[in-house]
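WARN retry 2 of 3 for item q-0093 after timeout on previous attempt; input resubmitted unchanged.
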Amino acid sequence: MAQNLNVIIVEKTGTLKSLMIKEYKEEELYKKCGFKKPDGFKKHTDWKIKLDGKKYVISVYGKTDGKANMENKYDFPPPIDNTLFFGSCIIICYVVKDGNNELFSLTSELWIKMYEKLFGGFEDLVSTAIEDENEIDELENVPKEKKTKQGYLKDGFVVDTDGDDEEYETEDEDSDAIDDTDDTDEKDDLDGENIEDIGSELSEDTYDYSSDEKNKK
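OK item q-0093 returned
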């Protein structure tokens, strides 16, 4: 039993709320989360964390059964990152002393530090953006004739796009030449077929001149 123990309530919306418990009783934690019955309410994980030279154990209690639209939207660290909770959850903190776990008041600030550590740390995007803005442009003082149209420094690997266009045009011409050869072959084959067809028609319609001369006589 501990007096004036601070815990963290994770509401179903994902909002964190600090709550002071005057008399801690594990069997009654479900009431702090707004549940009328303890059915299904239990501890789901223990995280062991070392922070600022101290060892902590963080426990999470909650329910994994509930009604629709009561799902908890908070993103918990592994191994319960894929666990679907319903309603509010509660986070309890212990400090390890002489091999024993003693209840310890958990503030929102301390939990945020632990949360980041459990996730492996987060990159400070704001600081990174500021550093990018203040970064010096190394090509700012380079003469125009030494840079490409896109503003890159000319070297053995980067050239103007005009040179690239010429190279592509050469490839296109080669490909066109190949296509023309194919078309010519197809045309020759087709002409040959036409000649054979025409020849067969002429042979069928051959006119017999000898019969006309006999009739005239």
